[in-house]
Amino acid sequence: MSFLLRYLLYRGKYVCLFSVSIFSTFCFAQPEPPLSTIVDQYNVNSRLTTPEIESTLIGALNYLKHRQVTQKKYKIKKQDFIIPKLGKNYWLSGLRSSISNSQIVKEKHILGGWPSFVCFQPSVSTAFFQPFLTATDYNLFSTASSAYCLNYFDDQLLLNDKRFVEKMKTGALHAIEIFKRGESYSFWPKQDESGISVNPPNIPIRLMDFRIKIFKTTGLWGVNIYKDANLLNEWILMIYNKSLNKIGGQALFNIPNDSDDTSMALIIKYLLGGHQEDLSSDQNNVALKSLIAFRDSGRKKFDNHNSLSSTGAFLTWHKNENIFVFDESEKGIIPLEVNNIDIVVNTNVLLALSLYGLTEAPGYNRTMEMVTKLIENKTWQENILYYPEKLWFPYSLSRFVRNGNIENSELLDQLPKLLNDILTDQIHFEEKHQHLKGVFPAFDSKNYLLSTVLGLNTLLNLGRERAEKIGKEKKYDSLVHHSIKYILRNKIKDKQISRKSNLATYFWKSGPLYSSSIQNLAHWYSNSQMTSMVTEALAKYVMEFDKDSAKSSKLYIAENQGKLNLLEKP
User: pLDDT band for position 86 (50/70/90)?
Assistant: First the structure.
């Protein structure tokens, strides 16, 4: 998740080619559908009987089915460009999608993937010009994250030609391999068959080359508002210095393979590949070794965005930072010449290593020690680089706790404290915003849905038993229940897909899911990834993940008289 790409794209390159395409990226705010009757009793015999739960889950899966790229003629939609800050600019979203689907600006799509949209300089650009700063993007993280919820569904009870979840899994696994470069995985796909460099499919390098000409004439890049402006300007000049960098503007996006995408690829391959993707696979074995090879140990460089050092934890980029930055360009170019440590990235690595049985791997225990101290000192919010919404850390950690094989008593002992801190913050927030019952505080006050989905998934993964240990089980129960209601109240019906498939189809507006390490340079959005995270939460709620032990690990899809239903047992 390179940050410089995001900032750069903003002014020069994008305004040029996407000046038309931009207009559409404006978000349109659809009115929230009314919440139908929902049972206000927490302990129901089966949560599938709660009105709206079953139909919403099936509708969400149908949305993911139709938004996954299954043919080259895939079209983006105006809903894809909804960004909360933009307000009710419906026509701009429509214009943006029309231009992107035109023959004039032909966008590339990746079979089996789900699209995301990158928004440059999100905090400083005026709403009206925001469409000019937005691009359709395909990256491994959004596709893998969109596929994650599919692990909780099984459609083997359907006829072979109707097993749409299985088809989505197969498509996602195929797409993930497109991002394989050398020993591990990259954020963007390879630029060509040589596999030497990677780049975003819909952001041409020539636009950046044009932008540098403007920069040389005017001296302006539009980054002087940042405290790192001097560093960014120096970096850009280095990239376009032919005596230092022979590949020119290509270095802007040719970032190295990284631990976040490699771990997510391995996680999805394990979960959706029928658990056949284990160490017997040479390809996976090599990728796992790559994760272990790059750690925060004996380093000579330090990223000024990091407050962590000598942790023994896992570094972000899979390249030696001690050689000259433009050497070995076939392995990518580390942004700003220095590696870094992100604790969300590290929890994803922990889950990957745990799934593949590598709990004794170098760096595994040191990373758990680092995480334990951050929770104990409540400093974890200060050590997240690539995720603006801070609840990403407890969410990703809780996924590791739920699915991993954890025997570290020190970390396990800190989990009630982490849960208590999250509940306490939510209580204080709700006291100030009583109309937002069940909502988790967010870094972006315009969008509480992402923080609430992350918080709810965290609660369900950590379980009610830990809430009992801190004497807050009643608050826990109430928060789970009201968060579910908030999520249902904020679903949006996709009328086009609903008509096409004759099935009520729903999605949720994306918040800023992840960012560059300099977080105000660029944010990524994806309604598909957002819908997947909501689907994950609703499925775990139905399966009672909050109880001491879940009823099951999957929901089964069946058909009865032409109607799809969910079963808790096959």
Answer: low
